[in-house]
Design brief:
By secondary structure, this protein is of the alpha+beta class. The longest helix is centred in the middle third of the chain and has 23 residues, at about 215-240. The protein has three domains: about 10-105; about 105-145, no CATH class; about 165-390, no CATH class. The protein has helices at about 10-25, 30-50, 60-75, 85, 90-100, 105-120, 125-145, 180-190, 195-210, 215-240, 245-250, 270-275, and strands at about 165-170, 175, 255-260, 260-265, 265-270, 285-295, 305-320, 325-335, 340, 350, 355, 360-365, 370-375, 385. The strands form two sheets. Strands 2, 3, 6, 7, 8, 9, 10, 11, 12, 13 and 14 form an eleven-stranded antiparallel β-sheet that branches. A three-stranded antiparallel β-sheet has the order 1-4-5.
């Protein structure tokens, strides 16, 4: 702290600081123009380091690199610029030619070099030690191929391996819950079960035919009130052969299994109370939901729209239907109408103290996507939303799951260029450069 320097950081540490933390840390300091250009640089590096890159955005990113370098020249002295700063302008072109950055950077090689250094037991003969240990490891791996129930040497497995279906991890209890709350969770489960969707459509059509003059909002409210009872009677009358639907129609047990920690979709989730005991944050969730929006109580033309909701996990339940259990998260949701907004730099800001949607607090556990909330240094009332892990496994997912890449956030947006320059904040200007000609020095085979 005396020298105001960060020491002992590896290049990967610097990337994490630059891509995730630096844009947040400088929000309350530095002149506006300087702060914005540093933020644009952080957004740029985060965009090109993604594991999935949309090719149509590469030209925009290439233009963005040029603009960032020009603005850096305006606000920083000439001593700041060296060959490393200049190389920024070539990074996007390398992606066009060679593919995503994460397949070509040195981090995997550096990690493997650490493994090879660990093979050295005789400092006087390091090469021989590495070769001998490497050969021994190859021989052991070859033998393990012919042995059952033996873990092979190699990349360690994630502790989430095999937990895609969901598994409670801590704080299990069986609690008698209020009937109204359990029925809220039950109604949400029905609305998000594929086999029940045809019955939902049938019930809405029935209400509409029996009440032709009713508007859409009244029909929706009436559907929410009467569907569970109608669904139970419908299944009993049809003598349904689907065992799953029979147990859903009978309704849940009011003794609910609760957890304080739950692993699902290769992620760990905690309740807010459990989070407060930990040094890590695992209670932030987001959900993109399609809902019907009304301008007034008499609106006959509502709009279906997808909106991102942000909240924290209050409780983790496994709703018991005797033959099976359904995990759900009970959350406190932020009011998206007044307490969520995206600023001019692309930060998604939420006010976690303004809670809404208390009559609809539940989501299916598999729908939850993890986010993290960081206090805004420029305004303590707001929290900044940062993304959690984004999985790109190539498998098809249910339509109700959210792809975080499409969530409005700092990490997916490039702020607009500010053409106005405050002369008092310009540290160095240059007029000795002209636009050059860009020649393609690489000839690709036909």
């Amino acid at each position: 702290m005396e020298d105001l320097k960060l020491v002992g950081l590896k290049s990967h540490d610097c990337h994490v600081l630059m891509q995730q933390l630096l844009p947040v840390a400088i929000r309350g300091i530095l002149p506006k123009n300087v702060r914005e250009v540093i933020t644009r640089l952080c957004i740029f590096f985060n965009s090109i380091c993604q594991k999935v890159i949309e090719p149509n955005t590469l030209n925009d990113l290439e233009n963005e690199a040029v603009i960032i370098l020009c603005q850096l020249e305006m606000y920083f002295p000439p001593s700041f610029f060296d060959i490393m700063v200049h190389l920024i302008v070539h990074l996007v072109r390398e992606i066009k030619i060679c593919g995503p950055v994460f397949l070509r950077w040195m981090y995997p090689v550096e990690r493997y070099m650490k493994i090879l250094k660990g093979y050295v037991k005789n400092p006087y003969r390091p090469e021989a030690s590495i070769i001998e240990r490497y050969i021994a490891e190859e021989a052991i791996e070859f033998c393990t191929e012919y042995l059952s129930d033996v873990e092979v040497i190699g990349i360690p497995k994630s502790r989430h391996e095999g937990r895609n279906e969901g598994k409670g991890t801590r704080g299990v209890k069986v609690v008698r819950k209020d009937q109204h709350e359990v029925l809220q969770a039950h109604f949400y489960i029905l609305n998000n079960t594929n086999d029940v969707i045809p019955y939902i459509d049938s019930h809405k059509s029935l209400l509409k035919s029996t009440n032709p003059r009713a508007n859409e909002k009244w029909l929706l409210i009436e559907h929410n009130k009467t569907f569970m009872k109608w669904f139970k009677e419908k299944i009993s009358q049809e003598d349904c052969d689907v065992e799953h639907l029979k147990w859903l129609a009978r309704g849940p047990n009011f003794d609910v299994i609760t957890w304080t920690g739950y692993d699902i979709n290769m992620l760990s989730f905690y309740t807010k109370v459990e989070d407060d005991k930990s040094t890590m944050q695992n209670s932030g969730v987001t959900l993109e939901a399609k809902s019907m929006h009304f301008s007034s109580s008499k609106d006959n033309n509502p709009i279906m729209a997808s909106i991102s909701y942000y909240g924290v996990i209050e409780e983790i339940w496994e709703v018991d239907y005797i033959k099976f259990r359904v995990p759900v998260f009970k959350c406190k949701w932020v009011d998206i109408n007044t307490r969520v907004h995206v600023d001019e730099l692309g930060f998604t800001l939420v006010d976690l103290k303004k809670v809404s949607y208390k009559e609809d607090p539940f989501i299916m556990a598999y729908q939850a996507k993890q986010v993290f909330y960081v206090n805004d240094p420029s305004n303590k009332r707001w929290s900044i939303v940062l993304q959690g892990k984004v999985k790109h496994d190539g498998h098809d997912h249910d339509e109700s799951t959210l792809n975080l890449i499409d969530t409005p956030s700092l990490l997916r947006r490039i702020p607009p260029t500010n053409d106005e320059v405050d002369n008092d904040e310009v540290h160095a200007t240059r007029n000795d450069h002209n636009e050059g000609i860009w020649e393609n020095i690489l000839t690709l085979p036909q």
